[in-house]
Amino acid sequence: MFEQFIEKYNLPLYRRTQLYTQYYKNLISSWDELTTWPVDLRKKLKDEIPFSQLSFIAEAQSDDGKTKKALFKTELGNYIESVLIQEKERNTVCVSCMSGCPVGCIFCASGQMGLKESLNQYQILDQVLHFARELKTKNKKVTNIVYMGMGEPMLNLENVSQSIISITDKEKLALSRRRVTVSTSGYIQNLRSFLNKKLGVKLAISLHAPTQELRNMLMPTVSKSNSLQDLFKLLDEYTKRTNKRVTYEYVLLRDINDFTENAKELAKLLKNRLALVNLINYNENDCLPFKKSRNTLLFQRILIENGIICTIRKSLGEDIKGACGQLATTNGER
């Protein structure tokens, strides 16, 4: 986007540096604030390139003040949601890579929407920049980014990859690769292509079931064409090559995947693998019938007793439907 503009007008390198510094680092809020550029050049930029490719619609804040959810509209008229999670030592932006999601996991509100639109790299970045500008007013910064919002990153592979390159580019947002996490439900061919790019970010797998049969029921779209056996073959290759641990996300659904036997099966599946299990208490939705598990601590204890590192994700933003699995909208209203 900016590169084409710079090339079109044959601008010198220092103009690009000025633009990047103001836009990505100083976090200006409009092209009028790009005062290091002359007025005539600034006007051309304003006429040709929108300051943001997303229109901000509304924002909701949780009662505890730790979570903010922003609603945006794309140029095609579709809606997406993004979340800022503010904790003592970090400020995490949970970005969406799609409006809706084609995967259709039966417990996820985004999946019930279907796919409305895949976002381009700039629309993904705009979500981060929106919250970065807000945090700047409090002398705070975005410290972490997770691709865990609406959409499946591996089905929007190039735009997600390009956005990561910009996020970690020292001339742009300059976040450490270790502070970026991409979560995927496990499209094997696309995941292999992503891992071959060697972007150096953390990997999380939306697992949610320890067996092929149960995963077929919970995540039929991805699971039936991407078997657990093939998925773990790829992940084993990845951990052997990089010595990096993979996080496995596991949403606990009452009386569905939270039994003692499920925990033992999961421990067996992950035995001798470089793994961290992140247990997620299900965040209930009015549109879905599932309930929170009563067995979270027992499930965790079984995994730990079997040598599996296991944490329980702290749920934030449930009161504004901004928690894991709750992002979903088809219009400007929730």
Features:
12 strands; 334 residues; alpha/beta; single chain; 10-stranded mixed beta sheet; 11 helices; TIM Barrel; two-stranded antiparallel ribbon
What's the layout of helices and strands?
Elements: H1 2-8, H2 13-25, H3 39-48, E1 55-61, E2 67-73, E3 79-86, E4 91-94, E5 98-101, E6 114-118, H4 121-136, E7 144-147, H5 157-168, E8 180-184, H6 188-196, E9 202-206, H7 212-218, H8 220-223, H9 228-242, E10 246-252, H10 260-270, E11 275-281, H11 296-305, E12 309-312
Helix pairs in contact: 4-5, 10-11
Number of domains: 2
The helix content, as a percent range, equals 25-40%
Note the total helix count: 11
* Secondary-structure element pattern, one letter each: HHHEEEEEEHEHEHEHHHEHEHE
The biggest sheet amounts to: 10 strands, mixed
Describe this structure in words.
α4 packs parallel to α5 (157-168) and α10 (260-270) packs parallel to α11. This protein has 334 residues and is an alpha/beta fold. Helix content is 34%, strand content 20%. The model has no long low-confidence stretch (mean pLDDT 93). The protein has helices at 2-8, 13-25, 39-48, 121-136, 157-168, 188-196, 212-218, 220-223, 228-242, 260-270, 296-305; strands at residues 55-61, 67-73, 79-86, 91-94, 98-101, 114-118, 144-147, 180-184, 202-206, 246-252, 275-281, 309-312. The chain is built from 11 helices and 12 strands. Strands 1-2-3-4-7-8-9-10-11-12 form a 10-stranded mixed β-sheet, with helices on one face. The protein has 2 domains: 1-51, no CATH class; 52-320, Aldolase class I (TIM Barrel).
